[in-house]
UniProtKB/TrEMBL annotation:
Lineage of origin: Bacteria, Pseudomonadati, Pseudomonadota, Betaproteobacteria, Burkholderiales
Mode of membrane association: Multi-pass membrane protein
An example Gene Ontology biological process: lipopolysaccharide biosynthetic process
Signal sequence interval, chain numbering: none
Protein name listed in UniProt: UDP-N-acetylmuramyl pentapeptide phosphotransferase-like protein
Length: 367
């Protein structure tokens, strides 16, 4: 098996995802009543009803790519795709009905994590924190932690999916990052999964960005978020010298976003699952991009915001490639990126540079 053998399945998966996305777009008149993401809602920034079932083309592309990859890659990718079914189906049900609650979808993504363990006998057994690793040596604790971690990452990807190209570009960058680390260890099967995941996501991205003709939707964000999380679990399992902090660094933006959103809503005494316009990408779009690109139409400002925030994942991935075998430097770099996020967030809500720690102790955040 060589890296070149990974090219054809990835290209096919990407092309099929692209063509299936175009087909959804061209036939939207037949299904828009069920699949359209309409314009009302606190987090909505688009101006026309848009198909939000981008997860369907991605799922088709992944399955066809699986049929073409080597047996070694199939052995890893197959269980991941099967385990991702609950996350995908419950997300797709929300896309079609708009009636599936946040808690139900969270449990579905956690269920995918448990199913992945059941199919592979693989779970998270270390996070490189003394005491916690001892607890994770107990299998029930390890399974529960895996479910929470996988479900958390999948929901984090869904939360940042607010502008054209944001979630999909971040997913491509993160998949390339994990694949690059795996390749450094000569792990071609895991590299192959990352290549396929990135390629299929890229096929969707080419239809979604910059004109936002189709959205990832909950089905797509949960499926890809779960896939990315499971690749992280596999990387740590197959290569014990890879620091858990480096793995987390690759996904630092969505993970920080979801944790800080929960903290922010608790501080403001609002429901933790209540949508608002105080996400990092929402603030950047309204308070920075809109003023710096006032000459652009709203659609292109939307896409500019999406790609700008998505590209923020590049520095953490590059640093993770350098320090992934050092727990100390990985943890230090991870902390640095979290503080940088909070500092930028504080700048946007206070209109002046403030300490990120002050942000954590103040409830007042202007929408």
């Amino acid at each position: 098996m060589s890296v070149n053998l990974l090219d054809e399945p990835a290209v096919v998966g990407s092309a099929v995802t692209f063509l299936a996305s175009v087909f959804v777009l061209l036939t939207r008149g037949w299904h828009a009543h069920f699949t359209g993401d309409f314009t009302h809602g606190v987090q909505k920034v688009h101006t026309h009803p848009t198909p939000r079932i981008g997860g369907v083309p991605i799922a088709i592309g992944l399955v066809l790519a699986w049929a073409l990859v080597s047996e070694q890659v199939q052995a890893l990718l197959g269980p991941m795709l099967i385990a991702g079914v609950p996350a995908f189906l419950f997300g797709l049900a929300e896309d079609l009905t708009k009636r599936v609650g946040v808690l139900v979808r969270l449990l579905a993504t956690m269920g995918s994590g448990v199913l992945a363990w059941w199919l592979t006998d693989i779970s998270i057994t270390r996070v490189d924190i003394w005491g916690v690793d001892t607890m994770l040596a107990w299998l029930p604790a390890s399974i529960l932690f895996t479910a929470i971690a996988v479900g958390g990452v999948a929901n984090a990807v869904n939360i940042i999916d607010g502008f054209n190209g944001l979630a999909s570009s971040m997913l491509v960058i993160a998949a390339v990052g994990f694949g690059s680390i795996a390749y450094q260890f000569g792990d071609l099967p895991l590299t192959g999964i990352c290549v396929v995941l990135a390629a299929c996501t890229l096929g969707f991205f080419c239809v979604n960005w910059p004109f936002g003709k189709i959205f990832l939707g909950d089905g797509g964000s949960y499926l890809l978020g779960f896939g990315l999380a499971w690749v992280a679990v596999l990387l740590m399992h197959r290569h014990p010298t890879v620091s858990a902090f480096a793995v987390l660094m690759v996904c630092v933006h969505p993970v920080t976003e979801v944790l800080f959103s929960m903290y922010r809503r608790k501080m403001r005494k609002t429901h933790v699952g209540m949508p608002d316009r105080l996400h990092f990408h929402s603030l950047l779009g309204r308070r920075v991009v809109r003023h710096r690109t006032a000459h652009l139409p709203p659609l292109l400002r939307n896409s500019t915001t999406g790609i700008a925030v998505g590209m923020m994942s590049i520095p953490p991935v590059i640093v993770a490639l350098w320090v992934h075998q050092s727990t100390f430097w990985s943890a230090t770099a991870l902390l640095g990126f979290v503080l940088a996020y909070l500092t930028l967030y504080a700048r946007m809500v206070r209109f002046a540079w403030r300490s990120p720690l002050a942000l954590l102790t103040n409830r007042r955040m202007r929408d």
